[in-house]
Amino acid sequence: MTTIHTSLDEAGIALWQVDVPGHAFNVLTPEFFEDLEKAIDEAAANEAVRGVILTSGKPSGFMAGADVEEILDMQAGGLTPTQGAAWAMANGGVLRKLETCGKPVVAAINGLALGGGLELALACHRRVLLSRRDIAVGLPEVTLGLLPGAGGTQRLARMLGIEKALPLLLKGTRLDPEKAHAAGIVEDLADTEEALLSRAREWLLAGPSAAQPWDVKGYRIPGGAGPLAPHAARSFQAGASQLRARQGRYPAPVAILSAVYEGTQVAMDVGLKIEAKYFGRLIGGKVSGNLVRAFLRQNRARKRDLAAPGYAPMAVGKLGVIGAGMMGAGIANVAAGAGIKVVLLDTSAEAAQRAQDRAAKQRQKEVERGSRSEASAREIVDRITPTAEAGDLGGCDLVIEAVFEDRDIKGAVYKDALAGLAEGGVLASNTSTLSISSLAQGLPDPARFIGMHFFSPVERMPLVEIIAGRETSTATMADAFALAGRLRKTPILVHDSPGFYTSRVFCTYIDEAMAMLREGVSPALIENAAREAGFPAPPLAVTDEVSLDLQKRVIEQAKRDGLDARFLRAHAEPVVEAMNGRGRLGRKTGGGFYTFTDEGKHLWEGLAEMFPQAKVQPSADDVAKRLLYIQALESARCLAEGVIDDEASADLGSVLGIGYPAWTGGALSLISTVGIDAFVADCQRFAQEAGPRFSPDPEAIEAVRAEAARVRKARASKASETA
Fold first, then answer.
1. What domain range is 34 assigned to?
2. Which of 81, 237, 262, 691 could form a disulfide with 280 if both were Cys (CB 3.0 to 4.6 A apart)?
């Protein structure tokens, strides 16, 4: 056996140490399942074996779960629901064999146990968990559009009761050791690895039963199961209704409900077949394929290295941040958390100090949640030096400017930044709209100037647009990517263009909503259709948050810059002007498209007078399509124009940066999801109804076809190499 190292002590306690070669973390490979089945058969046949301790031989964790690359390969190969169900039954069958082998097995969980890793532990007869802050257990399959397919829905519901298990399954919650113990997922905690194995061994020596509770005649699920259970109305009827309303485009949550409801009313072996049936439907569907691909792309992007041969990217030891507003303060806080010394410069010492105080409050919340120690929190905050003295920037390896979106203001602060840069240092701008190439004009070394566009709130938003100007060097791009990775952000490379990528695409979203409002489409219909499509914030509401006076300034700046008509947002400008004229600029003025009160917000009644509603309203599906498709089409144009290099950049940028619905896989993946020809046909229809902005440019569509072919070829080549 190559993935499990076995030994047997004089007391008859077998130790199985899992160490899957070729992986930093243990994953559930076909080889592992083969070795596990062999180990089970050998232990069951050996009378000298009293019990088994199953643990990890890797320092990185217990078991990370299924090999996601393997899942994507199967999905890309056209996996059918029947094949997916058979795959789940084969793997789940090995775990079922483990729990019915006649020998008691205890999982000594000495690291992360996620997804299939926790399912493996649940199939053991007892679980002891190492109580360490960096360890978590959970079943996060729902985030990949799947459900636990190796018995997770059935065992967790039988262990904890349906009402306690469902929230963990539906949210993919990760629990720290204390919470996992309190929930009943693990029976014991240990402070050290030695104690972990010792407690597991003591339990086995006590002669425990080798049968799971649900395999004992007369066992009843805590809290009951089926339609007559006291919680049934809350758990299933109301739960399904709420899920369909909130997550109609995501089939996994409803499938989880169905698998638990049906599976817990029958014997375990039948329940496993029911679970596998629903798993097969999900893994063979497009939504899961999109979510799995997006997950892998995000992991790859975090590790992406743009370094040229022979060039080692800069390791930033001292970072300068100019501007202590929300964005600058967030960048400083995240950088300090990554172990970097930060000089936070503002024209006001008080403003800089407030930014450090804000970081202190956020870190204190982590202490209160138990995710960070007091000493660690103080250490992070102390790495930030708030100041109003430009001279404190001296010796910075990289300086990020995060001041107001005005060329003159930015140009003025660059003098201070350049004076403070260490030799060979990099100057970056956090601009979201101004051309990097134009900002670089007049700088002594434009090759060492780059855009690093963070998103607010910086502490939570994972994306950074790395924007290369015309003269930005490859080494500078590599330095920016290295810093983004160190900050645990997901970087995408964008080439300088009006609005870059995310701002350009985001504007099409809010502009399309304003165009529909002007056409007479009900504002409630616009907002509700967006929610149903999966957007986290509907377009009129999000425009109120970013403010309508900002939209006016952006349009005016585009006119001053002499940009092409397509960047002047003519279909939305009348609405922007009308709202500015009424002084309704958004939340900051107490009202925009919405009215804001202490009790909440609601659509402003005056919209009906300003933009009378048409007698005939479009379908909610068409409204949702317009909001989805205009962004996908603009992404295709960005691909054709070379603003972005590939589908992955567009998908990551749209989902992580501007909230494009994750079920689509991203703005370009949506086109493949619905089919290129069907997408083009709908765009042509919308072009006739709404205007030429929907005309599917041949160059853009051809770029999408070529990129889709490239992705398929790369996946096929990888699969061939693996085989």
1. 4-284
2. 81
